[in-house]
Each structure stands twice: as structure tokens, then as C-alpha cells.
Amino acid sequence: MNLNQLPEDVKQLIDQRRNAFSHDAEHLIGGQEFLAEDENIVLDAVIALSLGKNILLKGPTGSGKTKLAESLSRIFHQPMHSVNCSIDTDTEAFLGFKTINQREGISKIEFIPGPVIQAMEKGHLLYIDEINMAKPETLPILNSILDYRRRLTNPLTAEVVQAKKTFGVIAAINEGYIGSVPLNEALKNRFIVIDIPYVQGDILKKVILQESQLKNEQLIHQFVSLSADLLVQVKNGIIPEEAASVRALIDTCDLAVFMDPLRAVKRGISDKLEEERERAAVQNIASTLFK
């Protein structure tokens, strides 16, 4: 991303954060740049975070939401703590837990801070993946850290935690998936929403070259065509969204370096699907491209 496209005051805010976390550079995760046809996706996310806004990344599985979060972490030189939500995610997964430790022969109850508390106290970024998979009754604990207060009364210790100024929150959702629930409006209103679409065409070629071991230009062109055809079938309701996942496509490209492309598609994409008709639809598309 070209930071020169940002307003000067935003660039100053980025520099301030970079200077604050220069000593934590070795703890940054992710080494690959997030790529998108619409460069405003990254620019808008950077501006929102610079202004202290919470960001909600909305898009299908494998569209690069986590990759964007990692890119933002590297842009700001700011470490990131993560929560991967599921139907079992509870308060402890966010805030931490109590445990008994032995010190000098004496048993003592200690609190082990979770990702939310750590990010707040250190002024780091917090990434909440698939936030709409968490139990609705668990999420209200986040309300006070997502508004102007940036404060939390820890129900496990009764301590008040005030976030440092550089603390920021990025969340991601896959709408319409089994196990997910619509976000409460009060919670959603605390976020700036950024849509992350599937990448296609020349951008997808760059993603494959950047993130997979496949370098054969003809095969890459065929896999880009496969992705486009799969997306058409997704839109027509023939196959589920996960069949068009860029993550699955990268895995398939890696396999295609060492095996027949059709077999790679079977292992990396179609065999993940539940219904035989869906698997057959993917293999039929692939067979027309990889003869």
C-alpha cells in the first residue's frame, strides 16, 4: 500500500504508533501483503484505525480478512492479539482465567490475562475472528471497550482495566454460516464496516504467486479461471461459498506443483464439500480446464 496517498495527519498518527512499538517489531505476525483490486479497502482501514475506530471486516471465508488484519498490524508496527470465536467461546476466552500456582510452598490463586486484557494493557491491536460465532450472551462484555470509554470491569477479578490510547479492535464475520448469529445492533454500531470481496483476475494471479509455490504461468491462469467459474456457481446456488475460498485455492495450487491439477482440485476443494452433487459440480468445472 502506498502510504503517500494518506492525509498528512493520518501519516503522523501512523508514525507515532510505529515509534511507540518499534521495540516490539519482532513480535509482528504475517509477512505477506494483503492484495485487493480496490486499494481503498486498505486505505480506509488504516484511516479508521488511526482515528481510534473499531473495524469490522465482512466477507466470505478465505477472502483475506485475517490477512488484512495482519497487514494492518505490520503497517502500524503494532503487535496483535487474537480470539478465534466458536459456539464454545466464553468470557474466559476473551478475558482470561484463574489458576492455582505454588509459590514458596504456598498455593495462590492467580489471574492469567487473556487476549482482550493483554491488548488493552499493552495498547496493542485485538483481532476477533468470526465474532458472530460467539454466544450472544458473551459479547456484551465487549461493549465498554468498543466505545469511547475503552474501559472494562473484569468480572473475574473486579478490577477496572483502562486501555492505552493505541489500543485498537479489528473483528471479522462470515455472514450466513451455520452456527453464526446476527450481531446485536448495539454491537455492530460500534464498528466501521469494510466489505472484503473475493479477489479475481490479475490480483488473484499476484496472490497465487505471492502465497503459493506454484510458478507455472499456464497453470496459474487456469486456476484463476477455475476460481471465476466457481464463483459463478456460488452465485447460482450450485455450490457453497467455501468452494470458492482463496485459501482453498492456494492449498490446491501448492498441491498442483507435485500432482496432477485435477487431483489437486479434488483434494484441496471438492472433497471438502458435504454433498456429492457439489463435489461433482466442482470436478466437472475443473475437468474442462485441466484436460
CATH architecture of the largest domain: 3-Layer(aba) Sandwich
Number of helix segments?
12
* Secondary structure category: alpha/beta
Largest sheet composition: 5 strands, parallel
Average pLDDT confidence is: 87
Point out poorly predicted stretches. none
> In which order are the strands of the major sheet placed?
2-5-8-1-9
- Globally, the shape reads globular
CATH level-4 homologous superfamily of the largest domain: P-loop containing nucleotide triphosphate hydrolases
Strand content: 15-25%
CATH fold annotation of the largest domain: Rossmann fold
Cα-to-Cα separation, first versus last residue = 38 Å
CATH class of the largest domain: Alpha Beta
Fraction in helix: 40-55%
Radius of gyration: 21 Å
Number of domains: 2
- Number of E-type strands: 9
Order of helices and strands: HHEHEHEEHEHEEEHEHHHHH
Protein name: AAA family ATPase
Family: Belongs to the CbbQ/NirQ/NorQ/GpvN family.
Domain AAA+ ATPase: 51-197
InterPro entries: AAA+_ATPase, ATPase_dyneun-rel_AAA, CbbQ/NirQ/NorQ/GpvN, ClpA/B, P-loop_NTPase
